[in-house]
Amino acid sequence: MIEWTEIKIKVPNRYLEAAGDIAQMAVPYGIYIEDYSALEQEVEEIAHIDLIDEDLLKKDRTKGIVHIYINPDESPQEAVAFLSERYTSEGIEHEIELASCIEEDWLNNWKKYFNPIPIGEKLLIRPTWRDEYDPQGRAVINLDPGLAFGTGTHETTRLVLQTIEKYVKPGDTFLDIGCGSGILAIAALLLGAKSAVGVDIDETAVKTARENAELNNVSDRFEVLCGDLTDKVHGKYNVVAANIVADAIISLSRDVDKFMHKDSVYIMSGIIDTRSAEVEKAVSEKFSIIRKFEENGWVCLVAML
User: Fold this and answer.
1) Whether residues 87 and 125 fall in one domain
2) Mean of the pLDDT values across residues 206-234?
């Protein structure tokens, strides 16, 4: 068994979204957030019950906890130093705690909370370990995210999936920059795209995306590359998606047009609302922004040349 280091960052609720955004920059594996501020309301809305476990009722409602996990090849101290510096510079009150955890425990325990998720009007994300589900007439994405980001539970991923529904047409070619689990490209293929290319700097994500392509029987149409942004990419695409972070989108937008046709669509997400204006200004130097979608402090932009 491999021991990972779990980093728990406790912050007041008002800082939780910003703290999560910064934590996502520290690791490529995705994050887990505990937020009990609206416990009763969420349980009623999701589970339609009013009986809540006593241990949950004892949770501190004024603070949330951001969990990230550091693999044995990386330095937890470096991650803590980065997080502490960023939180301090942003004026975010925080407490950081480290603990070891066994990889198998983490990978398996979180799965019990990940259920099939309908997205938009046409898609349903089905975790591979859930055999009982109703597809509701939707295209089913069979997904095992492993250690890669992109389960569909995060607002940024949902926003892009919903946007892909609107803009991917049968026969399109699709490019996903920062593909993570491969969920966006797989969705595009299931919605009618002819072919897709995904690229990610993390080898674990590349491996996971390829495995998910096999699970969805699209591996013959989905090429996954390991590289930074577009350094390994060739050709032109009808739809380009980037669900990354604001700084990377600003950098990418300087030359991503060389991978696009004149009528191609450029979809960007992973943008926290406080940085949206900055990203929009940078993107507008080459593109016309035609749509803007927002959810819980996250922004998704759609642009064309």
Assistant:
1) no
2) 92
